[in-house]
Amino acid sequence: MTKKVLVVGGGGRENALGYGINASASVDRIYFVPGNGGTAMLSKGSNIELEQDNISSFCLENKIDLVVIGPDAPVVAGLADKLRARNITVFGPSKVAAQLEGSKAFATEFMQAKNIPLPLSRIVKSTKTALNTIESLGGYANIVIKADGLAGGKGVFLPDNEAEAKHAVSDIFAGKVDGVGDKLVIQQRYHGPEVSVFVLSDGENYRIIPIASQDHKRILAGDKGPMTGGMGVYAPLPKWMLSTDQWGKITSIASKTIKGMRDQGNPYQGVLYMGLMLAEELDGDPIVIEYNARFGDPETEVIIPLLLKNGVDVYDMLMTTANGLLAKYDLPGSISGAAITICLASAGYPGSPQINKVIHGLDKSYKNVILFHGSTKKVDDSVVSASGRVIFVTGFGPSLKAASSAANAAIGKDGVHFDGMQYRKDIGHRAFRK
Ligand code: GLY
User: Fold this and answer.
1) Ligand 1 atom at minimum distance from 294 CA
2) Is 121 touching ligand 1 by the criterion CB < 6 Å?
């Protein structure tokens, strides 16, 4: 019990990663930069304020054994390269490899070159070409428009009419979406359930985390209303939703991706998030909707508890990946149990969230529930909301139904609540259809 870890980030994902690392007997200290109200409560955790440029000096001075980079922005900005250049062990991809998330054009060209299934896609660099491409792909109802760069979850448009399509194109080229606006990607629109799958890669070898999960990206029940960062997630998907054959095809996508990056001279180190669709138009075959260069949020809030419950040492898993030793590492072949996370969001989210609301019920314990903080802060003796996604309530149990009951029982006036709180009561609805 001597290892020190530094986790970059301060959302529900980092709280969940920290929870997993905190459980490892090898670890005695976890620094979060900047962390949140939940990470500060972990028995081995402390939050610190550090400029990104000062992280490497802090790590060297404090003999940090492992840095885990949570969010997209620092990986895409090249934090992992800066740390590796000073011989600091880091879990997170290089700036070039993170282009799989940081540039939709890079990811599109990569998948096309490596024969990885993706929607029919065109990279365009002018408004005129964009409008012609939309027309040639069958009009606004048949396409998806993606800003090229990171856009804080606001870079994907599924227009409902022609005006919305034109508006999206003009906003992207005006630099209003990803801050650059020199190109965008237009894809054919497919339909079907989305699945999140996570692949650990040390650049050479990879291991798929054997837990397929499903996020709920719209704010309202029934998958209605505006897109959000994710309002809830469940895992695993039942067998009738994701067959062994489909999982085999997902394995092949993971293999082609990791091998393809290695062969290009851009080995991928860290976790690759494959956002897939089981496309109805392809009889349920998986296609890549997006890659992300990080763990998902809220997916991490179900994955880490399930890994822990199945005997995985999370520190060991991350460290083995970062050290390039995955060839000698195995995850469990299958996972038992189920988990559901429900996001408690501020009134006004995803537009203008109302913040600084006191969160009640955090000090109680709830059966088969873990509370992860998203955006919270401590003010005097209270914990208050600090942004849109505030608390993630993870329920677990032997089945999805049990997990859902546990999570829902912890929410409300006798459980966790705050003024104006909104949440979806139908997380997992697709899995409950049968
Ligand atoms: N689950 C959505 C995301 O992490 O981007």
Assistant:
1) 4
2) no
The single-letter code of the amino acid at 376 is T
Ligand 1 pocket member 296 (CB < 6 A): yes
- Nearest atom, ligand 1, residue 13 CA: 4
Task: Tell me how far apart the alpha carbons of residues 370 and 308 are, in angstroms, rounded to a whole number.
Answer: 12
Q: pLDDT, tens digit, for every residue of 25-40?
A: 999 999 999 999 999 9
- In the sheet that holds 121-124, the strands lie side by side as 121-124, 184-188, 143-147, 156-157
Report the alpha-carbon distance of residue 242 to residue 240 in Å, rounded.
Answer: 6
How many Å apart are CA 68 and CA 222, to the nearest integer? 35
d(CA 294, CA 297): 9
Whole-structure pTM value: 0.97
What element of type H or E holds 373? strand 369-373
The whole-angstrom distance between residue 343's C-alpha and the CA centroid of its chain comes to 14
Q: What is the pLDDT of residues 239-263, one digit of tens each?
A: 999 999 999 999 999 999 999 999 9
Distance (Å) of CA 174 to CA 105, 147, 148, 162, 178: 18, 11, 13, 18, 10
* DSSP secondary structure code for residue 398 in this structure: S
The predicted model gives 53-77 an average pLDDT of 98
- Interhelix angle 12-22/314-322, rounded to 10 degrees, is 100
CA–CA separation, 115 and 100 (whole Å): 15
- Indicate the Cα dihedral angle 321, 20, 16, 429, nearest 10°: 90
Q: Is 264 helix (H, G, I), strand (E, B) or coil?
A: coil
3-state secondary structure of 296: coil
**C-beta of residue 36 within 8 angstroms of C-beta of residue 15:** yes
Q: What whole-number distance in Å separates Cα of residue 394 and Cα of residue 36?
A: 17
Does residue 340 contact residue 234 with C-beta atoms inside 8 Å?
Answer: yes
CB atoms inside a 10 Å sphere around CB 136? 11
Asked if 178 and 155 count as a contact pair (C-beta separation under 8 A), the reply is yes
With residue 256 as reference, give the H or E element that holds it.
helix 244-263
Q: What burial letters (b/e) apply to 36-48, b meaning 16+ CB within 10 Å?
A: bbbbbbbebbebe
For 55-113, give the DSSP string: HHHHHHHTT-SEEEE-SHHHHHTTHHHHHHHTT--EES--TTTTHHHH-HHHHHHHHHH
Q: How far apart are CA 234 and CA 212, in angstroms?
A: 9
Task: Tell me the average pLDDT across 315-331.
Answer: 98
Give the Å distance between the CA of 132 and the centre of ligand 1. Answer: 31
